[in-house]
């Protein structure tokens, strides 16, 4: 996205999160005429505090602005915060005063999964989410909606060559932990502390061969039932919170 490109945020929670976290990026808001409840009032109040125009409109107009979306009676226009490039990832890592904690998604294409991963990454304190530029989902409106504001707070890095990025992370002494069903060690036996990049594979296919080869070690989720695997966003959440547990215990 270019610097001046805009996109739409829709849904009460997503719009309120944008107003609370980065109101300077919002240019205008459309609110359904009949929304006179507490949530609508909260959005009106935050918009007034930040001098953002709110236009009361009929539901039909909101349906036209956000077709096929569950807008819940509110749509906002925001200046797009695009993905970071590899050079900006380097700057981000140089600026950290603590051990890097990164999430790498190798070819996740479903926007709902990416949005959910971003939301969990924000909650887990991940410093950046890294994805390949090709054959992977970017920051679409659906991703931003599902992320509930996390797309605006978690640095999102798109790289042209993931293998090269993995090599550069290794050169910084960042351990690469890949997830794979065909390995012996489960996440509760692994060490998630220190400088770490957690790598999650694509839906169904898992990590690509070259990505797998760059991993320092592999872990799996213990599966006790008949289901063979979990949704990538669910698996990501479980792994990130095991990392939180271990990293907080070291503080």
Question: What can you tell me about this protein's structure?
Answer:
It is a single chain. The chain has two domains: 6-79, Ribosomal protein L30/S12 (60s Ribosomal Protein L30, Chain: A), CATH 3.30.1330.30; 86-249, 3-Layer(aba) Sandwich (Alpha/beta knot). Helix 5 runs parallel beside helix 6 and helix 5 packs parallel to helix 9. The strands form two sheets. It has a six-stranded parallel β-sheet with strand order 7-6-5-9-8-10, with helices on both faces. Strands 1-4-2-3 form a four-stranded mixed β-sheet. It is α/β, with parallel strands linked by helices and 251 residues long. It has helices spanning 12-21, 38-49, 59-65, 86-95, 111-124, 141-147, 162-171, 209-214, 232-249, and strands spanning 6-10, 26-32, 53-57, 74-79, 101-106, 128-132, 156-159, 175-179, 196-201, 217-219.
Give the key terms.
251 residues; alpha/beta; 60s Ribosomal Protein L30, Chain: A; Alpha/beta knot; 2 domains; 6-stranded parallel beta sheet; 4-stranded mixed beta sheet; 9 helices; 37% helix; elongated
């Amino acid at each position: 996205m270019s610097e001046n490109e805009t996109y739409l945020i829709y849904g009460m929670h997503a719009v309120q999160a944008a107003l609370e976290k980065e109101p300077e990026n919002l240019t205008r808001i459309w609110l359904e005429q009949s929304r006179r409840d507490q949530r609508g009032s909260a959005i009106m109040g935050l918009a007034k505090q930040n001098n953002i125009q709110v236009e009361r409109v009929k539901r039909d107009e909101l349906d036209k602005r956000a077709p096929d979306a569950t807008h819940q009676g509110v749509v906002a226009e925001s200046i797009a915060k695009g993905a970071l490039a590899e050079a900006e990832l380097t700057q981000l890592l140089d600026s950290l005063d603590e051990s890097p904690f990164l999430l790498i998604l190798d070819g996740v294409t479903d926007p709902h999964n990416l949005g959910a991963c971003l939301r969990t990454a924000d909650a887990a304190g991940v410093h950046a989410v890294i994805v390949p530029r090709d054959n992977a989902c970017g920051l679409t409106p659906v991703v931003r909606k599902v992320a509930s504001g996390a797309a605006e707070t978690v640095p999102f890095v798109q790289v042209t060559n993931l293998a090269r990025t993995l090599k550069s992370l290794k050169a910084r002494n960042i351990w690469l932990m890949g997830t794979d069903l065909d390995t012996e060690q489960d996440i509760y036996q692994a060490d998630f502390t220190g400088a770490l990049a957690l790598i999650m594979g694509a839906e169904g296919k898992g990590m690509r061969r070259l990505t797998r080869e760059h991993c320092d070690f592999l872990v799996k989720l213990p599966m006790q039932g008949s289901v063979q695997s979990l949704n990538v966003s669910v698996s990501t959440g479980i792994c990130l919170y095991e990392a939180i547990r271990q990293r907080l215990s070291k503080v």
